[in-house]
Amino acid sequence: MAERLIARGIANNIAAETGTEVADDIASHWGGQNVYFPFDMAARRNAQIYAKFTGDNHDKLAMEFNVSVQHIYRVLKIMLTAEKASRQPGLFPD
Fold it and tell me: Taking the domains of the chain in order of start, what are their residue ranges?
């Protein structure tokens, strides 16, 4: 945290204090618990694949994202299902 603040022009002592305060806040809120921080790279990559899909460029996307063509099909199916679900209301109210 401090390195990022320093890179943005914050004074070293303020950056170090802020980093410590943030760590303390996280520890006071989540201390003693197992917390999982996922890498969101797959979700971002999947969104990029879906955005770049033209209907017939499965092979090109597989090469660009270094995955198999079958994986491109899986990603597109997941993304299309999620998009449809976001646009289509449920049959029964909650």
Answer: 1-36, 41-87
Q: What is the CATH number of domain 41-87?
A: 1.10.10
Residue 29 has what DSSP assignment? H
CA nearest to 71, candidates 60, 58, 80: 58
Distances (CA, A) of 63 to 21, 40, 57: 44, 21, 10
Which pLDDT score, from 0 to 100, does residue 94 have? Answer: 63
Sequence-separated (6 or more) residues with CB below 8 Å from residue 88: none
Q: Among all chains, which residue has been given the structure tokens 């770049």?
A: 52
Read off the pTM.
0.55
Model pLDDT for residues 37-50, shown as the tens digit of each residue: 766 788 899 999 99
